[in-house]
Design a protein that fits this description.
The complex is a heterodimer of chains A (109) and B (273).
Chain A (H helix, E strand, L loop, with lengths): L6 H15 L1 H9 L1 H5 L6 H8 L3 H7 L3 H10 L4 H15 L16
Helix pairs in contact in A: 1-2, 1-6, 5-7
Chain B lengths: L1 E8 L4 H4 L6 H20 L4 E6 L14 E4 L3 E4 L4 H4 L4 E4 L2 H11 L6 E3 L6 H10 L7 E6 L9 H17 L3 E7 L16 H13 L2 H4 L4 H8 L6 H10 L5 E9 L4 E8 L3
The chains are: A mainly alpha (109), B alpha/beta (273).
Chain lengths: 109, 273
Amino acid sequence: MATIARVSLYYTQKLLYQLNRDPLVQRRFRTDLEDLLSEYELTEEERSAIRARDVGLLYVLGVNGQLLMHYAALIGLEWNEYLDAMRQGVARHGPVRAGLYAMTTEQRR
Amino acid sequence: MTAVFIGVCSHAPGITGRAARAEPEVRDEFYRHFARMREAIEAARPDALVIVAAEHFANFFMNNMPAFAMGMADHYEGPIEDESWLAIRRTRIPGNAELSRRLIRSIMNEVDLAYAEEWKFDHGIMVPLHFLTPNYDLPVIPANINCQGPPLTPLHRAWGFGEALRRACDEVPERIALVATGGISHWPCTPDSGKIHEAWDREFLRRWAQNDRDALVSYSDEETYRDGGQGGFEIRTFVAAAAAAKGGKGEVWFYAPIPIFAVGCTVGVMNLA
């Protein structure tokens, strides 16, 4: 079941938590992303996933599903696009690496 | 006075946000039961609505996660989510800090409860309010049981919280309506969204309607995760509502799996003992 997440995954989630709920952080996300990213202890893979708005990779990295769903809504992903992004993330990067939101059904290709 | 109404309902964001994509007949029947609950709450003439929620990182985060929390503000705001995605406009919701303070002080005799003088609501509270107090004219007191970030409080403590909450409601002169909101089995926010374990839900609701404490608190988190998904951890809110009924039995007014809403959609009430 639950695994203890890496420190950097914690900060990836913290960034998304603050982004999802705070209009000021949303403004910085849009206008000065690098400055915002520099405040969190992230791996290069996590930084690049956020830069690329790569919902599939963030899902595989183990970001809490609720945080990721709110983030997907924030960046304007339509519902099916959002579900597809997670499926593609698993197809591309393998199973979810941490947390509780792993895919339980067969991967459809 | 006392608790004057106790109910439970679902809160999934699809219920409002993806309304147009649901099968109209079952969706409208579900909405009718939300309306029925609103009418029952109004008929109970409450001074405030306590909503026991399972929020999703709108307010509390893993840097300081309370097992139990309660709002203590004169107003709140929500939703945090994109308004068009949730199909609910961002608004200010009235609270009652002074009433909150009295309830919290009472509950603290039994439960270590965090208080919050600031609280942003996510879909977990906004979807129920959208149906139950659509004009946002009834003071709301939010409460939260952490169902998102493990370690989670055990089910018997969720029960204890419900008991303490009821006792606190019965101590204040105001009339309190109580609504607990959560999903039963579901796998939201994954590619499996829409998967629902209907038999597991119906068995849980049978135990809930019987108000069978021992059966309700007997689920281990491992079992719940296996059979009900990570969304199943939200049964804590239903367990608290059952405890608050002090032995009263429940009635499930509506239950139907609605996959595009990602949950077995539920509306139920507890008869007040």
